[in-house]
């Protein structure tokens, strides 16, 4: 790649440094215009003119000429590669980075870059030109600054503007999918369709909701163990497995172990929990309404010691995503009175929001099983696509309406009290002449989606225009808001949330149900087999980052080609056992995320094969050996995971992959130092010390052989 690329208008947009400006609107616009003009002047003298005329391109794609040469030289069809080189000072110091925490990273600790333009070859020893190492620009920038080397000026600037890793598929995403499906159900003609069947029957009237009986703990979600049809509004509840794929929602987000239902009411009309070998075959779809329901009560097994630390981390993450911190609202000139315009500037309003009451317990949930929704069978297990009915409040948290707060702030600013408070706030800081305050503006490129032929987002590019973001340091006017938390689709909702969720039909009077049904996979085991119990322990002990989705790419050794940072394993939703001793065998149940179907190597591209292969090495980098390296243990599904479920996923050109089947997996990480009294929480899962080195070597060979053979290392289809 020619050095001139980093001096093009796209590469030199903003140095990330803010600029202080006056506060009124005219001065702000002038300041922005001046800054834009200065950027244009700087760009006019940057580098060769032929490079400046390069068209806008996708930073997630390698330049065409470079790609063609790479594919020809290495006889490969891969499209992801490292193609840039970091220039070194010929007299620079040796720069090795092994073991150092440098640059931007994802929680897995691997080398990370936001785009393909953020990876480099570089010379650790400048005087040895043939010795090249691969790493990321942010790591190199940190290392070069440690050494005092600023030779690669433009590369340093590019690294400074690289965005930090961003996590996708967060707990709040499922709420959007659920409310969207609810609005579709409520708008069905006459309340019913061939795809949607209510328990009430096609001729029944839409009933009023009867509150759920029983007292719930103040810190717990509603207990739905004894929920009845009359506890639902409108045409809910729906018959199990009657909503169809278009209305189903897969649960893909984190649920901390502490919030998993303590009791599981399992509905099993076909006695699938007995896991008889003769019955583990797919059957024609059976009408649930014609079956006599058989109900079993299960309970959640306590978390293992190895999972305790991860559970606490996930609880904090889950809470942070629902918390709304104090809101700083910038003043709007169109609502400012003449009196306010006479002030030196209008300080922003700091809105104090009410505290969000987090729930710490989920008493119960329902699980529905059907033989017509089998996901697969194996030597020791059977897996079903199941419907999991949970308290809706667990998946759709309350919201604080920002639009209502904006309206409240506008009214407050036109109030005489605001003028007095603003005067006092300004006077308090202007007495100290050394206290500087004002607005700081930053220009940032707005990501734009690249659509494939089907109109589905496939990647992101930087557009030709940018936008201005503001931050503020200085006095504020505090305000206590009267806006309260609202449950979308239930209870009293403001017009803004009604419009956003479309969960109500005001003419028919239907509201959202008190529960939400999501799709998960339920794994059962044969009697006398202990693989499932062990697999549940492994899921709890695995690092949290293995089930997280992040932006950008990782370098997964021994490969030098970047791969996307999707999740490695499915989300784990608990291990349940019968609450009471049974006369006949009932299988334990492990609930996990539904991640698609078994991979077909014949339809994968070279990049997709490398991405699927990298999952095994990422699993090993996390100090685990899978011990069952076969293509049957890789699942795939279409569409980018960062977009909502629905047509954008189903018709997407991207694929995500996941490893499954950890009943034989072993831990190969370090032990706690002896004599410190720390318990070895991995003792029951740890690999044998006598064979660990040979096990690692054998697994590496199997992974590499599988990739070389096009992921056809095994041709069986067992789970």
From TrEMBL:
Q: Where in this protein does the record put region Disordered?
A: 1-57, 181-200
Reading the lineage from the top rank, the first entry is Eukaryota
**From start to end residue, where is composition biased (Basic and acidic residues)?**
32-43
What is this protein's record name?
Protein kinase domain-containing protein
What is the taxonomic lineage of the source species? Eukaryota, Fungi, Dikarya, Basidiomycota, Agaricomycotina
């Amino acid at each position: 790649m020619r050095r001139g690329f980093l001096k093009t208008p796209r590469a030199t947009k903003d140095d990330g440094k803010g600029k202080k400006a006056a506060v009124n609107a005219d001065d702000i616009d002038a300041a922005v215009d001046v800054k834009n003009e200065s950027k244009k002047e700087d760009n006019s003298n940057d580098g060769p003119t032929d490079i400046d005329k390069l068209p806008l391109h996708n930073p997630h794609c390698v330049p065409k000429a470079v790609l063609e040469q790479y594919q020809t030289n290495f006889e490969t069809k891969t499209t992801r590669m490292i193609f840039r080189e970091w220039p070194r000072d010929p007299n620079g110091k040796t720069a090795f980075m092994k073991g150092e925490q440098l640059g931007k990273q994802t929680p897995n600790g691997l080398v990370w870059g936001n785009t393909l333009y953020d990876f480099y070859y570089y010379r650790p020893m400048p005087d040895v030109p043939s010795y090249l190492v691969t790493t990321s620009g942010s790591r190199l920038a940190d290392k070069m600054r440690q050494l005092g080397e600023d030779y690669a000026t433009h590369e340093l600037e590019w690294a400074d503007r690289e965005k930090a890793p961003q996590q996708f598929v967060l707990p709040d995403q499922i709420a959007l999918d659920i409310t969207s499906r609810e609005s579709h159900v409520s708008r069905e003609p006459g309340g019913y369709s061939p795809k949607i069947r209510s328990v009430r029957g096609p001729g029944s009237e839409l009933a009023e909701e009867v509150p759920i009986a029983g007292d719930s703990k103040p810190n717990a979600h509603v207990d739905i163990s004894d929920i009845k049809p009359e506890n639902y509004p409108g045409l809910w509840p729906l018959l199990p497995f009657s909503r169809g794929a278009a209305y189903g929602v897969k649960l893909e987000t984190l649920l901390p172990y502490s919030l998993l239902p303590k009791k599981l009411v399992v509905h099993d009309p076909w006695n699938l929990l007995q896991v008889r070998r003769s019955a583990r075959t797919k059957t024609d779809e059976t009408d649930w309404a014609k079956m006599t329901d058989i109900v079993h009560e299960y309970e959640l097994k306590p978390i293992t010691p190895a999972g305790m630390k991860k559970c606490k981390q996930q609880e904090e993450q889950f809470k942070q995503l629902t918390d709304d911190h104090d809101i700083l609202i910038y003043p709007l000139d169109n609502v400012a009175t003449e009196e306010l315009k006479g002030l030196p500037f209008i300080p922003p309003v700091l809105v104090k929001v009410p505290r969000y009451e987090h729930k710490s317990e989920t008493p119960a949930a329902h699980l529905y099983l059907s033989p017509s929704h089998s996901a697969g069978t194996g030597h020791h297990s059977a897996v079903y696509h199941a419907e999991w009915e949970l308290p809706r409040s667990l998946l759709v948290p309350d919201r604080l309406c920002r639009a209502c707060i904006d309206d409240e702030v506008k009214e407050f600013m036109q109030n005489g009290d605001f003028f007095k408070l603003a005067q006092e706030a300004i006077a308090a800081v202007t007495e100290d002449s050394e206290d500087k305050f004002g607005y700081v503006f930053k220009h940032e490129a707005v990501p734009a989606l690249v659509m494939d032929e089907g109109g589905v987002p496939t990647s992101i590019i930087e557009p030709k225009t940018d936008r201005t973001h503001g931050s503020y340091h200085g006095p504020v006017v505090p305000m206590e808001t009267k806006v309260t938390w609202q449950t979308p689709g239930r209870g009293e909702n403001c017009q803004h949330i009604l419009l956003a969720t479309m969960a109500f039909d005001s003419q028919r009077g239907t509201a959202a149900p008190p529960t939400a049904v999501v799709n998960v996979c339920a794994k059962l085991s044969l009697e006398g087999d202990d693989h499932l119990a062990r697999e549940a322990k492994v899921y709890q002990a695995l690092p949290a980052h293995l089930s997280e989705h992040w932006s950008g790419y990782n370098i997964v050794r021994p490969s030098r080609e970047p791969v996307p940072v999707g999740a490695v394993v499915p989300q784990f939703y608990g291990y349940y056992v019968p609450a009471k001793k049974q006369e006949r065998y009932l299988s334990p149940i492990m609930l996990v995320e539904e991640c698609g179907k078994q991979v077909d190597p014949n339809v994968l591209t070279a990049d997709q094969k490398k991405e699927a292969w990298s999952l095994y090495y990422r699993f090993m980098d996390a100090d685990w050996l899978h011990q069952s390296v076969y293509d049957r243990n890789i699942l795939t599904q279409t569409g980018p995971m960062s977009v909502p479920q629905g047509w954008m996923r189903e018709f997407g050109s991207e694929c995500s992959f996941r490893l499954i089947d950890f009943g034989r997996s072993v831990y190969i990480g370090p032990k706690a130092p002896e004599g410190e009294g720390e318990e070895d929480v991995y003792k029951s899962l740890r690999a044998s010390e006598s064979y660990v080195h040979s096990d690692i070597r054998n697994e590496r060979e199997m992974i590499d052989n599988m990739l070389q053979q096009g992921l056809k290392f095994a041709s069986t289809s067992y789970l």
